[in-house]
Amino acid sequence: MNYPNILLGSPKVIAEGVRYLGINEIKGKMNNATIMSWAKDVGVQKDYTSDEVAWCGLYVAKVVQKAGFQPVTDPLWALNWRKFGTKQTIAMLGDVLVFTRENGGHVGFYVAEDDSCFHVLGGNQSDSVSIIRIEKKRCVGIRRCDWKIAQPETVRKYIVAANGKISTNEA
Questions:
Q1: Looking at the record's lineage, which domain of life comes first (predicted)?
Q2: 54, 118, 152, 163 — which has fewest CB within 10 A?
Q3: Considering the domain 4-167 in this protein, what is its CATH number?
Q4: How far is residue 17's CA from residue 59's CA, in Å, rounded to a whole number?
Q5: pTM score > 0.90 for this model?
Q6: What pLDDT was estimated at residue 2?
Q7: pLDDT at residue 42 above 80?
Q8: DSSP characters for 91-157?
Q9: Does 66 score more than 80 pLDDT?
Q10: SS3 of 6, please?
């Protein structure tokens, strides 16, 4: 899927988040230094010791922090992101989306949607920062940044074609 028109002039969380597209964890004993630096930047380096540990919440914490917002307490736990910002009922560009999955949760940013799925910018999606499709029925939280001045005009729904594989277990 190609998203350049959506991302142009996007909210700061999306502008910051796409900078990391393509960052991958490293399998085995080595760790991706960038991912590990996020743990230090966010202040969770004592709890986050390997890039093979789930890092979707770490990615979201790094991005919201870079965008000037405060991450949630215990950001490594994806389901904790249901406490971020302001609760919403309709997802829009830049919103934090929280999902359930087998044995846990997942968190990422709304980029767009089709009839059945959200298109989510997130970390630890097939072990990388990417945009994937996740079924809407798995979403248990939609949270919007507490904009300091005014909500950007680009914060709205974006409908796109239902192309691409649907993710069933982000890791």
A1: Bacteria
A2: 163
A3: 3.90.1720
A4: 8
A5: yes
A6: 60
A7: yes
A8: --TT-EEEEEETTEEEEEEEEEE-SSEEEEEEEEETTEEEEEEEEGGGEEEEEE---SS---TT-S-
A9: yes
A10: helix
* Rounded CA separation 32/51 (Å): 7
The letter for the amino acid at 146 is D
6, 101, 59, 45 alpha-carbon torsion, rounded to 10°: 180
- Please work out, in degrees rounded to the nearest 5, the angle formed at the alpha carbon of residue 6 by the alpha carbons of 165 and 133: 15
Structure tokens at 126: 């097939």
Q: How many Å apart are CA 77 and CA 57, to the nearest integer?
A: 6
Query: pLDDT per residue over 3-31, tens digit each?
Result: 656 666 689 999 999 999 999 999 889 99
Burial of residue 68 (number of CB atoms within 10 Å: 0-12, 13-18, 19+): exposed
Within 8 A by CB and 6+ apart from 70, the residues are 64
Q: Which residues contact 12 (CB under 8 A, 6 or more apart)?
A: 67, 68, 94, 152
SS3 4: helix
**Which residues are 105's β-sheet partners?**
100
